[in-house]
Structure formats: C-alpha cells, structure tokens
Write a structure and sequence with these properties.
9% strand; mainly alpha; three-stranded antiparallel sheet; RNA-binding
Length: 529
RNA sequence: GGCCCCUUAGUCUAGUGGUCAGGACGCUUGGUUCUCAGCCAAGAAUCAGGGGUUCGACUCCCCUAGGGGCUACCA
C-alpha cells in the first residue's frame, strides 16, 4: 500500500450543524458518534458550520453549539476556531470554492442555469399537486440554447444553477448501518445547487465540502437518507471519491414523535444548567441507538472510545427517557472522588445562594472529619478565589455529602436535600408538621430532648445517639417517637439522612434552637385549637 | 400524491431459522432500618397485525397498520 492510498484511507469524519438554534440532544448524539468513530480509528474529527441560510444563522447559536460540544468533551481536531488544512470551516466563507466547482460542472454540462421565477415554479407546483402528480421541476430551462441564455444574462435576469439529473437509470449506495439502497433517477429532480443570491444549497455545499475536506465517513441522522442519492450524483459529477455513509436513527419524544420542545428539555444547554454530569449525558446519548453487548451500560467517554462501533448502531428510532438518564447520572456521581463532589456541590450551593454569611453554625468543638466512619479525612484543595470566605465550611460540606450518600443523585436536588443545613427558612412539609409536631407529647418530648442536649459536653454522633435513646428509655417510649418529631423539627420533612448525623452536622446550638421552636409551636398550636 | 426509513415488555436494547426470547431503567412484593435512599431477594411485563416460505419462524418474503423522513432558491 502506498503512502497516498494510506492517506486516502484515513478516517475523517465531521459534525456539520447549522447555527440556527441550540445544540439539541439529537445533534449532540450525532456529534458524539462522529467523535467516537474518529477516536476509535485514530481518525480526525472535523467541525464544520453550515450557515448557508443567512436569514436563520446567528452568532449566539454558533457559540452555543461550540460551548455544548466542549461541555460534553467532544473536542474537534479541525474547525472554525482551531483551523486546519482544509479550511475555512464555515460555509459562508467558502463561496469561491462553490462557484469554481459550479463553473467546472457548467463547462461539463452537468449543471445548467435556470431563469424560472419563484412565481412560475410555485404555479407549476400547485398545478402538479392538483393533478396529483409528484411535484417536479418542469425542465423549462434545461435545454435553453446558448443564445437564449446569453440573451437572458444580458437582460440581467437572476438565475439558479440546477443539476442535470438523468431521466433514467438509478443510483446506488451502501449504508454501513442499513445496507444497500437504490433510488430511481426519475424520482429525483433537477435540484438547485446555487441559489439566485449566489449561495450554495445544502445538498451542494455538503458534497463540495465533504469532498474537499476528504471526509471518509458521513455519519448523520437518517432524515438525510433521501438526500443521499442526490449527493451521490454530485460526488460522481464532481469526480470526488464517494465517502461511506452511516445514517443514525432519530431520537423521539415519549409520544414517539420527533423530539421537540414540548417534550421537555431538548437542548444540551438546559441539561448543563440543571447540573447534569456531562459524562452522564454522553453515556446516555451513546446508549440511545447503540449498544455494546446488550449488557454493559455504564461507560466513560474514554471507555466509549474503546467500545464504539458503527456496526452496533441500531436502525430503529429511540425514545428519550429522562428517567434512565438520571439513573446513569446517579451512577456516574457515585464514582466521583470526594473532592470532585465537594466542588460540584459547592458550586450549586453558591449558585442557589444557599451560603448566607449570617447563618452561623456552632462547629467549634464537635464536628470533626475523623467522625466519618471508615473514611480518610477529606482535605479541600487550596481554595480558589471566592471559596476562601467559606473555606471553613468545606469540611462540613464534605460530611453532609458523606451523610447524604446515595440520596444525592442529582445535583439539582442539592437545595432540597441540603437547604435546612444552611437556612432557617427551609421548606416545611405542612402535613408533617401537623402530624408530628402539633401534639402535646411531641411538644414536651422535644423540649425534654433539647434540655438533654443542652447538658452535652461533646456533641458527637455517639453522645447524641446515646442521649436520645436514653431519654426515650426513661420516657418509656420507642426511640422512633423522639426521632420522627425531631426530624420534622430540624429538617421540615419526614425524610432525611440518619437523624444523628443531621443533628451533629446542624450543631448543638442550631439543634436546640429548632427543637425549642418546634416545642413552642406545638404547645401554641394545641392551646389555640 | 410519489419515493424512502423504522416496528422485540411502559422505555433503551440483546438476538441473525430450533433460546424457558437475555440485560438495563421503571414498576410490584418481601428483607435490612429512625424515615427515605441504598443494598439483598423475588416478581409482573415483549416479538404491531395478517398471510406465506420451511420439518420448524422474533429471525427470510409479501401485504396491512402505525410512526418518521425527503419531495424548497431550509438544513
């Protein structure tokens, strides 16, 4: 094998979004599969921006797409911002190429100028539809004589460039995922390559670019299957080597229609904003249309690169299931090292403004990292700017995360799960308060418990538990009779992590304060009723 | 209207003529327990429908139905 051939066989794939909206999950998955295929085969991953629709393309969208891809960890080797051998990578900057290639096709008689107006075209289409005929270009300008063309040109009439489609025969191509296709040329049309404003159409620009960028595999959504025969014609007409095609199944919403806004969040931005882990998003997207062996489901990006294969991409559409993605998110979160969890949780606490400077917890004596059973003390890294102010809060966050354990699955649940550790105006469950706090017994018990805690020298978990259970014994009640109202008094909810850890982490002063408040509330409530 | 794609439990999938149709999420039940989560154990649930081909079809062919795509000077 010569060096040239070797070069031609190199895997080069591309993700080619048009900057007309946010990066949605379907696009992200297409990008992911391209990325994985490139990395798996030591290939090159190209990012190309298809902005030939001047009216709909925006700068914000362009930036959003790049941001989304970076968040997912899908770094490209060639692209608009990083450059590369075959740039520019933005179609609006490749006009010269499109025109020179069109001129070449024109000289070879493979395309022709069409002077038909939009009105004429529309009228013809309406007529065809009325007669239940397939709408096709009528071919008015297909065989204009050179003098007719010169005459129209001289009059300055606008024109488009159309592809001269053979009226007979058929086109064939193979799809890596779906096998062989054959389309009758008669069903295709003399589609437009260059619009009257001089810009290329999608079908034309894609082929010129894929050809010139030496794309070896076109991996894209299956909504492009029916565009492929036109593109194959163009590849042949232009004399480019035909890439291999791989069409991915569509991603659907829960009602099995194309995924759209009304199905919930469809942009990868919104998942990032909701604090989903990018690794989880990548993992879930990978599974939407691809499987490794039908068994293994948890992968890091790195593991996906090892495992990915186009051969195992499914051909049926997949429904996006948030529930499964959240499970995958939880699984990935579990595997994070403590320091990473702290950083993530801290970020959410800060963003949700749950770190009010006024909220002082009495941590001077009791809470110590050594209290985490079976764990090495967690040492926070040198605090970054902004973190300094709360540096002494870091160990406590570490302990809260530790205590929360598996209950913390989604970062977006942090406010709900941790709010009562940081604010006195935490959410209270109305029913829980009524059921557990508004009784004479609860009121006196909580008051008694507060009194017992008051006497404690060391507010560690063992002392706290011993104190509570001891009181229960003396009152001749189940420990639960003390635990349940305490939980509601301290957290506002009927569910929380281990109550003794909650008490310790809340600190002695705060615990007693809330127990007394609840006791008073109960006494008042009873007197009032 | 024409051309094309898709169809295994609620969902993602394994399966390539002979399997008790496997796994996962979710769901149900039981166990552990201060609640919840977790964990452990058990369980319900699937080959869209109809014709063929074959000794034998989830697997091959045809039809129907449903969903989707293209048929633009959108991509």
């Amino acid at each position: 094998m010569s060096l040239i051939e070797k070069h031609d066989d190199a895997v080069r794939v591309r993700f080619a979004p048009s900057p007309t909206g946010h990066l949605h999950v379907g696009g992200a998955r297409t990008a992911l599969y391209n990325f994985l295929y490139a990395r798996r085969n030591q290939g090159v991953f190209v990012l190309r921006i298809e902005d030939t629709d001047a009216a709909r393309s925006t700068r914000e969208s362009y930036e959003g797409i790049l941001r989304g891809l970076r968040w997912l960890g899908l770094e490209w080797d060639e692209g608009p911002d990083v450059g590369g051998e075959y740039g520019p990578y933005v179609q609006s900057a490749r006009g010269v190429l499109y025109h020179s290639e069109a001129d070449r096709l024109m000289r070879e008689g493979k395309v022709y100028r069409c002077f038909c107006t939009t009105e004429e075209l529309d009228a013809a289409r309406v007529e065809q539809e009325a007669k239940k005929l397939p709408p096709k270009y009528t071919g008015t300008c297909r065989d204009l004589t050179p003098s007719e063309i010169d005459e129209k040109l001289a009059r300055g009439l606008p024109f488009v460039v159309r592809f001269r489609m053979p009226s007979e025969g058929d086109v064939r191509f193979r799809d890596v995922i779906r096998g062989d296709f054959s389309f009758a040329n008669a069903d295709l049309d003399d589609f437009v390559c260059i619009k009257s404003d001089g810009r290329p159409t999608y079908n034309y620009a894609v082929v010129v670019d894929d050809g010139h960028m030496k794309i070896s595999h076109v991996i894209r959504g299956d909504d492009h299957i029916s565009n492929t025969p036109r593109q194959v014609h163009l590849f042949n007409a232009l004399g480019y080597r035909l890439p291999k095609f791989a069409h991915l199944p569509m991603i659907l919403g829960h009602d099995k229609t194309r995924l759209s806004k009304r199905h919930g969040a469809t942009s990868v931005d919104s998942y990032r904003e909701q604090h989903y882990l990018s690794e989880a998003m990548v993992n879930y997207l990978a599974l939407l249309g691809w499987s490794y062996d039908g068994k293994r489901e948890l992968f890091t990006l790195k593991a996906l690169i090892e495992a990915f294969s186009l051969k195992r991409v499914s051909s049926n559409p997949a429904v996006f299931d948030l529930g499964k993605m959240e499970w995958i998110n939880a699984e990935h979160f579990k595997t994070l090292p403590p320091a990473a969890k702290i950083e993530l949780v801290y970020g959410v606490l800060e963003e949700e403004k749950l770190l009010p400077p006024s909220f002082e917890v009495d941590l001077s004596r009791p809470v110590d990292l050594k209290l985490v059973p079976g764990k090495e003390p967690v040492r926070a890294e040198a605090p970054a700017e902004g973190i300094r102010a709360y540096a002494r809060e870091i160990p406590r966050i570490a302990l809260i995360i530790e205590t929360l354990g598996n209950r913390l699955k989604l970062l977006k649940d942090v406010p709900d799960l941790m709010g009562y550790f940081y604010r006195d105006d935490y959410a209270r469950d109305e029913a829980a308060v009524n059921n557990h706090l508004m009784t004479k017994e609860a009121s006196s018990r909580l008051s008694a418990l507060a009194g017992e805690f008051e006497k404690l020298q060391y507010f560690d978990r063992a002392s706290v538990e011993e104190t509570l259970r001891g009181l229960a014994e003396r009152l001749m009640i189940e420990a639960g009779e003390l635990i349940h109202p305490s939980r509601v008094a301290l957290t506002g909810k009927t569910v929380s992590p281990d109550i003794f850890w909650v008490i310790v982490l809340l600190g002695k002063a705060k615990t007693i304060e809330r127990l007394r408040l609840a006791a008073a509330l109960g006494a008042r409530g009873i007197a009032a009723s």
